[in-house]
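Reader question, answered in our methods column.
A reader sent in the components of a multi-part assembly and asked whether the whole thing could be modeled at once rather than chain by chain. We filled in our standard form and ran it. Here is what they sent:
COMPLEX SIZE: two components
ENTRIES:
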Amino acid sequence: MIKKITTPFSAADASDLKAGDQLRLTGVIYTGRDAAHKRLVALLDEGKELPVDLRDQFIYFVGPCPAPPGRPIGSAGPTTSYRMDAYSPRLIADCALRGMIGKGNRSKEVVDAMKQHKAVYFAATGGAGALIAQCIKKADVVAFDDLGPEAIYRLEVEDFPLTVAIDCNGNTLY
Amino acid sequence: MQRIISYDTVVEQVAALCGKAACDLSADVKKVLFSAKERETTAMAKDFFDQYQENSKIAESTRLPLCQDTGFAVYFIELGCDVKLDRSDIYSAVNEGTRKGYGEFFLRKSIVSDPLFDRKNTRDNTPAIIHLKLVAGDKIKIVLAPKGGGSENMSAVKMLKPSDGRQGVVDFVVNSVVNAGGNPCPPTVVGVGIGGTMEMAAILAKTALLRELGKPAEDERYAELEREILEKINASGVGPQGLGGNVTSLAVQILHHPCHLASLPVAVNLNCHAARHAEVTI
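And here is the structure of the entire assembly that came back:
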């Protein structure tokens, strides 16, 4: 059984998902990986406003290929998530970030923050970058343009295949 | 007899290899990867194999890369002693081909200039890593194995004691792969180098990844070792994407080399399920 979900995503929506659920996501998500996370947390430390409102939103850990002519984006599969473990708890606690999309296991600190604030960790299929690119209908840089593939993009996705890897109660497939 | 090969030919051929390796799963990988689905029992695990197959079809037809991490361009080159380029040198030609290929095929540029301080993107995916071997003859054989960060980061080298023996090797390799979990995009191909020195073992492990997938080691003792390690890895249940299943690795491929009487170096280098490689002989 494949469930369809959309963003924005509330705490109540998060509570409906269980580890192992197979999903198709349609809606707006934001990209972010190593360098963008570092900058977001630096802005929080300085008490400044973030360039994107992450409340009830999902961050997709991805650094896409350049877009060929006539396409919104190049190949765009997930990157390994543990490198964002140092930053994710802060975005979940301070910004009400609801979901993260990546590949591979997360730290105890991330899972604790997810349980406390009702956030979900989704696995996208590592190495399926061409397939995932077909699900991305629009891509616009919304922050940190100078970071190139590591900039924050606003993506409009349709039927993006995901699996709930760790649910908001801390149940995990890893 | 000396053979003159044009610098521009090498550049063109290398650029074409970059596109091919990024977008086309090779025939040996298709055969082993797609048939592995039958060994999975859950809908989730089977679905991943369907996605790998669909992804490969889309990449072939759209020329979007199989994976957004189009990697470090790692070349293994056999340069015939009778070959001379009409200008410059093989290192410059391969780097220029890399620059051209990564630009023309819209591949991601993933190389930073300084590993520790600036980490500034070189914006053309150079410098490439070039392993050059001089051989007899008048040809140049170029193998490109683009290497993504996710799988490369899960590599390991250990200087075992000779007394650790066969069991020491089995335990080290199995633990390295199982502890990597979903990070290297399983099902992986496991390259293992045994013997030589520390750096030799690492190069053997990477070279082992280039062997035709599914072809066992020539020495039956090592072929048996490959089967045993693979069985133990797949019994772990890590599975595709690390989310559970029967197929954690597609193959274990071992290369060995003479070593010092006091040493037993072992290196593990992983490839993701795409196990990208492409080659050309000029």
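What stands out: Strands of chain A lie at 2-6, 22-31, 58-60, 99-102, 120-123, 136-143, 152-166. Chain A touches chain B through 37 residues (CB under 8 Å).
Send us your own complexes using the same form.
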